[in-house]
Amino acid sequence: MQLAFDPVMLEVMNNELAAIGDEMAFTMRRTARSFAGREGGDFMVGLQDSDGNLIGRSQYAIDKWNIVTAMPWVWRNFPGMLRKGDIFISNDPYGGGDHLNDMTLILPLYWEDRLVGYAGNCLHATDVGGRPGGMSAYAQSVYEEGVRLPGVLLHDAGVENKALLDILRANSRAPDDLLGDLEAQIVALRRGEEGYLRLIRKYGVDTVMSFTQHLLDYTERQVREKIALLPEGEWVSEEQLEDDGTGNRPGPLLVERLRIKDRCITIDYTGSSPQARNAINRPPGLNPTRGSEIVRHVLGPDMPMNSGVLRCIKVIAPEGTVANPRFPGAVGARAYLRGDGLTAAFAMAVPERMPAGGTGVPGIMLYTSDAEGSPRVLFDVYQNGSGGRPTKDGMDGGGSRATGGAGVSETPVEVIEREHPV
Q1: Exposure class string for 315-331: b at 16+ Cβ within 10 A, else e
Q2: pTM of the full predicted structure?
Q3: Cis before 93 (ω within 30)
Q4: Residues 135-173: tens digit of each pLDDT
């Protein structure tokens, strides 16, 4: 039963859902095994309705929409077959994912026998096999980048898929990090499930179901009203790399065309280079992430962050280009084409709201061994700061939503020295 709109209850529901998202994020940060999870915070957590729309997320998680873009593959692989206790896992760049290191987990949520939504999270795994780290620019197909999970069950009706975990352990150079992070992700999903069912017990299932839909509609209206205040027009920026990451010059060209019209933002990559032979391609799952990330910066942090935002953003990425490669194109080094050109395009449209370009999201990966000869892997995302803002300096040691990397933290040097001594 659909309940009438009530602005007070809408605000209550929005904050309740965000609080559950925060609980999931804190759980991930405190239980993750890898640097990327517990120190860097390179993860996304959220709650979704039964249609897969994001309805609640944490302000302490980064913008990474894999948990939404993976849903069509959940339904395709398990049409009407998901049961209570199932946990779906995927890292497939051609199945709604980003790159193989981003492990996406989805847990269906049931109230009695009714599917009421999903809890999801995505975390950057240290190593999933393949060429070093799964992010080598030299890979020429996704087959070289590691173990690819096209959407399978990690838990089947509550029973752990031990064979799958054994395969992952056998193919990772950092198996303790990989499996430890998966355990943290599962615990975070359970925390989200607990919080969402608690919300239903508190307000009733019809109230929660009705107001999550009201929240999506309200967010869309709010975003469109803010877009209406921006100047209409078209602005084009080009991102030309010096080489393709392996020394071949010139590198690919990423054309980023911004259109603002009729209370809608269109990001058009038409004109970009054909997909590269190596791993510098951007998987299509990255496009909603980059779009929402920068729109959130432009329109202000006060708007709810849910799938209502995506209704107002249209992405055009021609297939077979570096912005949308065809299978089995490699994508592990996609961070080289993070999308600073989009920052520049918005700077042409609304210069008073945009900073100068930043450093992107550079990372470092080192392979060593401990005293017993067991492999050790150090992965860290380091932040060099963001560009200068219109009225003040840029931020030291951190990225911004305008230039990419917001929410990802550096690992303290003391922690690196303790766990990876020279």
Answers
A1: bebeeebbbbbeeebbb
A2: 0.94
A3: no
A4: 888 999 999 999 999 999 999 999 999 999 999 999 999
